[in-house]
């Protein structure tokens, strides 16, 4: 990100080619991190309290396999609905993804992830226009929202994989690979959505290799300074925030 301040209005929405490029790169980075794990790393707890590293990898793999296979997607939707009960469907789907891959060895998890990650990125890019317009309901901090399926495929899946890469890096005491062109673009998109959701003026100073200075409105309402990755962790519900940082963003 540049050193000069960026107005929120100047941060463009992700178009399909850029979303596809980010998805492919993020999937590759996630695979690279998982392939580097030691035997002891797989059982380490993560910021998602119900999951250790192994369960988190199983979730990401399950999500990717649902993208590649329509049959697997339908299965996860049906089984996830039964598992969710009265909870959001996504909660049931993630439980199914983890449970149905619990029997896999870590080596087989890695093998399937390596094979599936690039295919999942390609499948997301090729989602037909009529399907992109279909509604998809999800939960954001206890509030049900309806998104277009294209938003899920273009934006949320990449954010989810990115945040879980951060989760695993933190759990295993590794430094995640962070670059301005890739991670910085993901962070800027999060900042822009956060700003649209709360609609208040602010000046945001994000530190680190993927940070920058962002201004919304006249910038006189609230000034916030913190690390760029921590900013995203707070908005995802992994950390505590005050003021405008209580406004969640879906990951």
Topology:
Layout: E1 5-7, H1 16-35, H2 53-68, H3 70-84, H4 89-99, H5 106-125, H6 129-132, E2 135-140, E3 143-148, H7 149-171, H8 183-198, E4 202-207, E5 212-216, E6 223-227, H9 228-235
Helix pairs in contact: 1-5, 1-7, 2-3, 2-4, 2-5, 2-7, 3-4, 8-9
List its salient traits.
four-stranded mixed sheet; 12% strand; Four Helix Bundle (Hemerythrin (Met), subunit A); 2 domains; Maleylpyruvate isomerase family mycothiol-dependent enzyme; 251 residues; alpha/beta; Maleyloyr_isom; two-stranded antiparallel ribbon; MDMPI_metal-binding; 9 helices; DinB/YfiT-like; isomerase activity; globular
Query: What is the CATH fold-level name of the largest domain?
Result: Four Helix Bundle (Hemerythrin (Met), subunit A)
Top-tier CATH class of the largest domain: Mainly Alpha
User: Structurally, how many domains make up the residues?
Assistant: 2
Shape, principal axes of CA atoms = globular
Strand content: 5-15%
Tell me the structural class: alpha/beta
At the fourth level of CATH, the homologous superfamily of the largest domain is dinb family like domain
> Helix fraction?
40-55%
Please count the beta strands (DSSP E, at least 2 residues each): 6
Spatially, the strands of the biggest sheet line up as 1-5-4-6
Level-2 CATH architecture of the largest domain: Up-down Bundle
> Gyration radius, to the nearest Å?
18 Å
Largest sheet data? 4 strands, mixed
Euclidean distance between termini CA atoms? 21 Å
Reading the helices and strands in chain order gives EHHHHHHEEHHEEEH
pLDDT < 50 runs, ≥5 residues: none
Domain Mycothiol-dependent maleylpyruvate isomerase metal-binding: 24-169
GO molecular function: isomerase activity
Keywords: Isomerase
Protein name: Maleylpyruvate isomerase family mycothiol-dependent enzyme
């Amino acid at each position: 990100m540049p050193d000069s301040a960026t107005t929120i209005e100047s941060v463009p929405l992700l178009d399909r080619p850029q979303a596809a490029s980010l998805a492919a790169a993020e999937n590759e980075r996630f695979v690279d991190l998982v392939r580097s794990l030691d035997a002891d790393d797989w059982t380490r707890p993560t910021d998602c309290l119900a999951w250790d590293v192994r369960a988190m990898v199983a979730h990401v793999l399950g999500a990717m396999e649902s993208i590649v296979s329509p049959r697997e997607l339908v299965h996860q939707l049906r089984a996830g609905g039964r598992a969710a009960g009265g909870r959001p469907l996504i909660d049931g789907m993630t439980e199914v993804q983890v449970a149905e891959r619990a029997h896999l060895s870590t080596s087989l998890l890695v093998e399937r992830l390596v094979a599936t990650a690039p295919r999942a990125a390609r499948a997301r890019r090729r989602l037909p226009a009529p399907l992109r317009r279909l509604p998809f309901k999800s939960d954001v901090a206890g509030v049900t929202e309806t998104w277009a399926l294209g938003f899920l495929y273009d934006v949320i899946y990449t954010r989810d994989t990115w945040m879980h890469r951060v989760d695993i890096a933190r759990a295993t005491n590794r430094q995640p690979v962070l670059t301005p062109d890739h991670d910085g673009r993901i962070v800027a998109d999060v900042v822009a959505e956060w700003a649209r959701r709360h609609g208040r003026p602010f000046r945001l100073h994000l530190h680190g290799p993927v940070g920058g200075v962002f201004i919304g409105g006249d910038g006189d309402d609230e000034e916030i300074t913190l690390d760029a990755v921590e900013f995203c962790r707070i908005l995802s519900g992994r950390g505590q925030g005050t003021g405008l940082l209580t406004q969640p963003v879906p990951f």
